[in-house]
Amino acid sequence: MELSNLPRITQKGLRRIGRGHGSGRGKTAGRGTKGQKSRKNIPLAFEGGALPLVKRLPFLRGRGRNKVFKPHPIAINISSLNKFSKKTTIDIDTLIKYGIVGDVARRQGVKILSDTKRGPHAKLGEKELTIPLVVKLPVSAGARKKIEKAGGAVET
């Protein structure tokens, strides 16, 4: 082994505080001198004795308070359906089989949305459906128009 061929160390070791003056973090161990923060552990949300932010906020009661945790359907753009062959029946199992969505879709559901052509770089026809398909999933109104325009059908 040579000095020029030593392996790289990617992890830094933990800083050993309170191990004497030579360490650079001795005596007060990087906490400064005196005061509450230099002594024991204080809560992360401690605000110097003032009423904490968590207690100042009103309670969030009632219906719909946990919207973050509710499962929302997975949105799929209509242009991602162009990889199927003609008259294919599109349902959750088909989308999982072709790798468009994962197994989570069985629990959350899927909704097909119409692509929007916005911005200077949107190419014409890029966001259109060109293949007639039979869709057995919830679709938006714009997606329904594009599926029927391509000669397909939407079944609910």
Brief descriptors of the model:
156 residues, three-stranded parallel sheet, two-stranded parallel ribbon, elongated
Low-confidence stretches: none
Radius of gyration: 29 Å
The end-to-end distance, rounded to whole angstroms, is: 69 Å
Shape: elongated
Please provide the count of β strands: 5
The largest pleated sheet is described as: 3 strands, parallel
The SS-based structural class is alpha/beta
Strand order of the largest sheet: 2-4-5
User: How large is the count of helical segments?
Assistant: 4
Q: Briefly note the CATH topology name of the domain at 68-154.
A: Ribosomal Protein L15, Chain: K, domain 2
DSSP helix fraction: 10-25%
What is the CATH level 1 assignment of the domain at 68-154?
Answer: Alpha Beta
Could you walk me through the main structural features you see in this protein, from its secondary elements to its overall organization?
By secondary structure, the chain is α/β, with parallel strands linked by helices. The chain has a domain of 87 residues: Ribosomal Protein L15, Chain: K, domain 2. The strands form two sheets. A three-stranded parallel β-sheet has the order 2-4-5.
